[in-house]
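Notes from hallway chat w/ T.B., transcribed later so I don't forget. T.B. wanted the structure written out for a chain they're using in a teaching module, and asked if we could keep both sequence and structure tokens in one place. Agreed to drop them here.
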Amino acid sequence: MRSDVLIIGGGPTGLVLALWLTKLGVKVRIIDKTAEPSTTSRALAVQARTLELYRQLDLADAVVEQGHRVPAVNLWVKGEPATRLPFETIGSDLTPYAFLQIFPQDQHERLLIERLEALGVSVERRSELVGFTDEGDGVTARLRGPEGREDSCEMRYIAGCDGARSLVRETIGTGFPGGTYRQIFYVADVEAAGPALMSTWMRPISWRSFPSPGRVARGSSGPCATSVPTAPTHSGSRTSAIGQSITSRSRSKG
């Protein structure tokens, strides 16, 4: 059966597009070459504008409830505290979501998948786009399925939500404009133990972490350190997102 839209990529972008179109009554098909959804944090922050859009999809409340609201960020430079950036009031006269929301990508994807499946649409896993042709009044795509067999399908539109190396973007020649940071950043999900301190000794190559309740710390190293205070615990003590004494040695493998 011909779909209205074939979505390539089952990450947050493709999932939200599929969810939005399905709610509008558009028949979609969504494929992804991975065998399963994300299992690591990866992208963490959900901005106010995203939550405003999610409110129209009845998603905002779930993201806020399941995620972790960040009231401020503490910055260190070369082991010394530099400044604290509060988020509690920034944009409070512009949006109901005047805060930084931490919601790890694996949790994020699971929420979107659940909502999409409730509407009768599932991501077709281990399926990838081989190529496609613009027929003028539609698109014919060649897909490779889980068993390696190739089939063709027709749709009115194709949407490339498959990242920086998108085959859709490459085929239509749109490119991926932008630049690369000179600094090297590392993102990791780790298990750590130690006293919860509001500040801690930082190495020149720093650690920034954004743990969510019940999960391990997630961090990235960069030119400055970042600590995000969390909400008070049940005992009334205040913890710090960087409240782990961590000694790590990381090597970048090409």
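Follow-up for T.B.: Confidence is low (pLDDT under 50) at residues 196-254. Might be a good example for the class.
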